[in-house]
Amino acid sequence: MREPLDNLTAVRAERSIRHQALVDATAGAIIYLRGAQIQVPRERCLHHSEECAGGCRIPLDPLPGRAALYRSRLLGSRVQGICGEWPNFIHFFPNHRRSLSLPIFVQDSNPFVTASIVHALLLIDDGGAGAVEPMLARAMRSMTIYKRGAAYGFWPPLPPGLSDYPVVGPPNLPIRLVDRAAGALISRSSNSWLAKLRSFLGSTVMDWVRLCSTSPENLPGAYTFFNVPNDADDTSVIVAAQTLYARAPREAPPSDAAALRHLILHRDVNRVNEDNRNTWKRGESGAYLTWLRDEDAPLYGDPAGGVVPLGVNNVDAVTNANCLFALAVNDMKNAPGYTDCETLLSRVVRERRWPAAGIYYPQRMMFPYCASRAYRDGGARSPVMTAAMGTLLLDLLEMQEPGELQGERVASFPDDNDQSRDLSTALGCTTLLNMGRRMAREMELTARFEECLEGCIRYLLCRRRHSMEGGRGPDPQSGTAAAGILHARQEGFCWDEGVFFSGGFGDMTHWRSKAFTTAMVLEALAKYQLGYDLHAAPFHEGPRLRIAEAKR
Fold first, then answer.
1. N or C: which end of the chain has fewer CB within 10 A?
2. Beta strands 124-125 and 88-92, pairing class
């Protein structure tokens, strides 16, 4: 069981950063996330409760001054959201907008963002203020709709009536428009705009578009482009979130750990086909495959089970880090493939194959973050992983860039896909906290570690932005100190969105979310205040940041 941190004074004595700035930023991030979470009015809630329990599909009303947030740039249509989730957006061809003269993004629904934000919020004890626990309850319920059979997938099932077959997909992307675009792409048209688009897609994707568009066996048609199977990544982060959520003293259903058995059934062993993006792993690895679907089954034989993109499975290093995290936190370290997964991650670090080994993760700092989370928060602390973390620590200290911002000496982590460094620095900062000062001390890197860590925290504090997402703050009449602290912040704080995910085909699709970045910053700030780098307790045994205590 987690215990609130009682001796915050001892932790603060180790820190040079002004404590009140940390408290303000932490409270502001919580207020922002509470205001940004998708909710539904009671009269439209399927659960007919005082506050929606999460999981409802609802048309989204624009927020004051933020109408564009809930509208698609495709035809300007209204969009739907799922109660309990946070807004995130698919950006199509983000690096070719000027060339294509078509800036397109649509709001998406997926459990990866939700599970990631839940992980950050589980570090917070709001002292009964009613800010965090309702958020968590809605979020946990929303992820249950992604279960398809025995495991979980990236997109929700599409409502009946859109397709004659049970399919999943992005709820706000007009599939008829996709169908027309696919038909134009495979036509013989010499239109210059189509020629550019074909060039950006590349021959591999164009062959897939042609195959799906012309095969008589593909009964769902254009829906197949998005009707992906269950996957190891989302199954892992969802189950890990369920497990950690259920370990706290609250009423919660048991974790769906049985879903992790499907990871074991889909490993990189005895395979015939290889994804050409997997050359970095050099043959059979024994690690976990991305898609939980039999590669030898007919490609279009089971629409309800989904279709593997490009018709071939693959191994993604970030996905395997999340698999390791989920298996370790559920005490499944003896599972087939676990040791192979560790070996793969260690080799990615040793040979510096990241971020390229993360097919679906162009964000440079996502691999270090997820690998260190498996090591520290999951408890995957074998000698192999410990050695890998040491190598990774040295690489991060070499990679960080010192600077000055608002008169403060700061440090940040660059990323090739973003002008903003908010997300990459938050992920890098948490990675350092997960590794801890003991590791830095043993490597005689203490001074560099401390300078980089505190520089990153200063950078994140300087980069916070005011947001008007604080309208649903907790009632100060609840009588708790935390409620007063949170209510005092009429505005939330947020940080610039960054790329955290892609469709795996270059820069065809990028996922961005201001809420995701803000949660990653919240995790870094909370772990810093908790002295996460000063002790070795795993996530579920360590302290939570009690906001009421932090005020003192």
1. N
2. unpaired
Asked if 249 and 163 count as a contact pair (C-beta separation under 8 A), the reply is no
pLDDT at 24: 93
SS3 at position 393: helix
Phi/psi at 267 (5° precision): -125, 165
Decide if 328 is inside a domain: yes
CB 15 within 8 A of CB 525: no
Q: Which of 388, 393, 396 is nearest to 424 (CA)?
A: 396
Q: Is the pLDDT of residue 551 over 70?
A: no
Contact of 281 with 358, CB cutoff 8 Å:
no
Residues 435, 388 contacting (CB under 8 angstroms) = no
The pTM of the full predicted model, rounded to 2 decimals, is 0.90
- If you ran DSSP here, which 8-state letter would residue 123 be given? T
pLDDT for position 84: 93
**Quick check: 341 and 287 in contact, CB under 8 A?**
yes
**Alpha carbon 308 to its chain's center:** 21
Q: Does 526 map to a domain?
A: yes
Question: In whole angstroms, what is the distance from residue 402 CA to residue 425 CA?
Answer: 12
Check if the beta carbon of residue 369 is closer than 8 Å to that of residue 322: no
Residues contacting 430, CB < 8 A, separation 6+: 369, 372, 373, 520, 523, 524, 527
Label each residue of 180-214 as H, E or C: HHHHHHHCCCCCHHHHHHHHHHHHHHHHHHHHHHH
Nearest Cα to 520, choosing from 405, 455, 424?
424
Structure-block tokens of residue 33: 């996330």
Beta bridge partners of 125: 546
Type of residue at 354? W
Asked, for residue 544, whether it belongs to a domain, the answer is yes
199-222 pLDDT per residue, tens: 888 999 999 999 999 999 999 999
Identify residue 475 by its one-letter amino acid code.
Answer: D
102: containing domain: 8-173+226-550
Q: Tell me how far apart the alpha carbons of residues 260 and 156 are, in angstroms, rounded to a whole number.
A: 19
Whole-number mean pLDDT of the chain?
86
Average pLDDT over residues 244-250: 86
pLDDT given for residue 57 in this prediction: 61
Q: What is the CATH number of the domain that holds 253?
A: 1.50.10
Mean of pLDDT values over 289-300: 94
Q: Cα separation of 403 and 410, whole Å?
A: 5
pLDDT per residue as tens digits for the range 459-502 = 999 999 998 655 454 544 444 545 445 555 557 999 999 999 99
CA quadruple 359, 365, 371, 374: dihedral, nearest 10: -110
Q: Which two tokens stand for residue 145?
A: 């709709």
* Residue 393 in domain: yes
Residue 472's Cβ-side half-sphere holds a number of Cα atoms within 13 Å equal to 19
C-beta neighbour count of 240 within 10 angstroms: 29
- Cα(228)–Cα(226) distance, rounded to whole angstroms? 6
Q: Of 177, 200, 173, 195, which is closest to residue 185 (Cα–Cα)? A: 195
Euclidean distance between CA atoms 372 and 388, whole angstroms: 9
- If one counts the domains in the chain, the total is 1
Confidence bin at 289 (pLDDT 50/70/90): very high
SS3 call for 491: coil
